[in-house]
Write a structure and sequence with these properties.
8-stranded parallel beta barrel, Immunoglobulin-like, 16 helices, alpha/beta, TIM Barrel, 5-stranded antiparallel β-sheet, 3 domains, 581 residues
């Protein structure tokens, strides 16, 4: 095995007019490359097989022939016919980048916008998403986070069923389409982050176990057996995913990765898998002289994820903070089922704004154990949100916050998120007061698999006492209903103005140095967040009485400009005011 400081490439690629192929297959006696009508034996080198073919064969389709028949390349860059078809050789080096001087955006300045490419526009294509970049730029967004792009079964999927982590989903467009999109974003001073899944593989079309022991019985995840990061032959599995990170960050030039559910990545190796990912990310960042971020999703409130490697941490730049969402959502909606049973108190909202984590070493009645650690790092290392794909799409009806609590309260929550000390994230359509649902959807290959998905989905809601009747994930109508309705922008201009003004106020007044120094006070339904030397103040009124605010009011979420009816200095019930003293 080679050193993994910078693992050798895998899959198919072009180098100096030579087409190169390399695959990890430690238990195979032989592997052949079938490209066009030609079958070429691959040479063995340790646990890998490789071959080089003269000429640039970009666009050629190929299979790898093993004792289990013709298989797509596990590291396919593109699968034009989907999970059961051939791999296509892609030359990423042929793309001519226009924005070569791009240096990235510091995490502490990011305002993130999460979107699903398949539902962001009518066509669901990468190139059509480009036409909406101006909308996001003008809003003030400087970072786009794309939900997973890896190839899945069918024509519609959230992306977490991916089985080819290197392959751009053919439903969205080509690899060069994606590179062009990123290039365009960079030219508009916007970063692009990709959501990746390193904790499991999807249920259909997974060829990785045909080539080697990619999965292990040592641990169990909610999706079945875990990926093999620390058992026999685990080094090849680790190198596969190390290469995946390198591919997305170095070759495709994403500005960061968001790793799904890292608490379901199990590894007892001397150097943890997550830690090594962090080292690789930092190395690419230094080599390319641009800022790259790694963001973890975890529900364990474990600060070690974002602590420096030298301080016994994994070295990630940031992590999602579910506590912030749960505290506000549960209190305003009255929902107390499932994991929301740990939330719903007024004081928890103030604690979330002050400390980040609500559960930071305290007892969880829902989990029946102690949960979390103290968070005492820079506030931008926590990503907060009022809505995201999980918190909307994992509701049985996919209903957005505005449909549950109404416009007035939703405007207040927008201020709490955007003017928080943390890194704010907005879910697509939120800025327009979108009411159309975002549902869970799939495109099953047959009726039997579809019914299995539909029934499994119902079981997921058992903790919440939600209605049994839900839109079937397998239905085309479920997918079409989840398409973002851009016509709502015209009808909800006041929402757009609110988010525009909130982001502008954040940039102008709440500089990172100011956000480092905050105090939070909670009493009688009022939460006050002071920044700096009491210079900037954010008030949230969750009570029933109106209060007068002194100082220069910058934003009142209940003003007529945003669809309300309040005077600037009136802090009405369920509204927010941001002022400068």
């Amino acid at each position: 095995m080679k050193s993994v400081e910078y693992p050798e490439n895998i899959g198919g690629w072009i180098h100096d007019n030579v087409s190169c192929f390399r695959v990890w297959a430690p238990l195979m006696d032989s592997v052949d490359l079938r490209i066009g009508d030609e079958t070429i034996p691959m040479s063995r080198e340790g646990e890998y097989f490789h071959v080089e073919v003269d000429g640039d064969l970009t666009g050629s389709e190929y299979f790898l022939i093993t004792g289990k028949g013709n298989k797509p390349d596990p590291a396919s860059r593109y699968l034009p016919e989907g999970i059961d078809g051939p791999s296509m050789l892609v030359n990423t080096g042929s793309y001519k980048w226009k924005c070569e001087q791009w240096k990235g955006i510091p995490l502490k300045e990011m305002v993130i916008y999460e979107l699903h490419l398949g539902t962001f526009t009518d066509s669901g294509k990468i190139m059509d998403a480009e036409s909406r970049i101006d909308h996001l730029r003008d809003l003030g967004i400087n970072t786009i986070e794309l939900m997973p792009l890896s190839q899945t079964y069918g024509r519609r999927n959230w992306g977490y069923d991916g089985v080819f982590p290197f392959s751009v989903n053919n439903n969205y467009g080509s690899v060069h389409d994606l590179m062009h999109f990123i290039d365009k974003c960079h030219s508009e001073d916007m970063a692009v982050i990709l959501d990746v899944v390193y904790n499991h593989l999807g249920p259909l079309g997974n060829v990785l176990p045909d080539f080697g022991p990619y999965v292990s019985d040592r641990y169990v995840t909610p999706w079945g057996r875990s990926l093999n990061f620390d058992s026999s032959y685990s080094q090849g599995v680790r190198e596969y995913f190390f290469n995946n990170l390198i591919y997305w960050l170095r070759d495709i030039r994403f500005d960061g990765l968001r790793l799904d559910s890292v608490h379901n990545i199990f590894d007892r190796s001397p150097e943890n898998f997550l830690t090594h990912l962090s080292r690789l990310s930092s190395r690419i960042s230094k080599e390319q002289r641009r800022k790259i971020v790694l963001i973890a999703e975890s529900d364990e409130n474990n600060v070690s994820l974002v602590q420096a490697i030298g301080s016994c941490g994994n070295g990630f730049d940031a992590m999602w903070c579910d506590d912030f969402h749960h505290a506000i959502h549960s209190y305003l909606t009255g929902e107390r089922q499932g994991y929301y049973s740990d939330y719903g108190r007024f004081d928890q909202i103030g604690k979330a704004l002050k400390d980040g984590f609500v559960y930071d070493g305290s007892y969880s009645s829902y989990l029946h154990r102690i949960r979390g650690t103290k968070f005492n790092l820079e506030p931008w290392k926590l990503v907060v949100f009022a809505q995201n794909h999980d918190q909307i799409g994992n509701r049985p009806l996919g209903d957005r916050l505005i449909s549950i609590i109404g416009e007035k309260k939703t405007r207040m929550v927008a201020a709490a998120v955007v003017l928080s000390p943390f890194t704010p994230m907005i879910f697509m359509g939120e800025e327009s007061g979108c009411r159309s649902p975002f549902l869970f959807f799939v495109d099953p290959p047959d009726e039997v698999f579809g019914k299995k998905i539909d029934s499994g989905r119902k079981k997921e809601f058992s903790d919440f006492s939600w209605p049994d009747e839900i839109p079937f994930p397998s239905s085309v109508d479920t997918f079409m209903r989840s398409k973002l309705q851009w016509s709502e922008n015209d009808d909800s201009r006041h929402f757009y103005l609110l988010y525009h003004d909130l982001i502008r106020a954040r940039r102008k007044f709440l500089k990172p140095s100011v956000r480092m120094h905050r105090q939070v006070y909670s009493k009688d339904g009022i939460i006050k967040v002071t920044y700096g030397e009491n210079q900037y103040l954010l008030f949230l009124n969750l009570g029933s009485e109106t209060h007068k605010i002194h100082g220069k009011v910058i934003i009142n979420t209940n003003s007529p400009r945003y669809g309300g009816e309040s005077h600037d200095h009136d802090l009405d019930p369920y509204s927010a005011v941001f002022s400068v003293s």
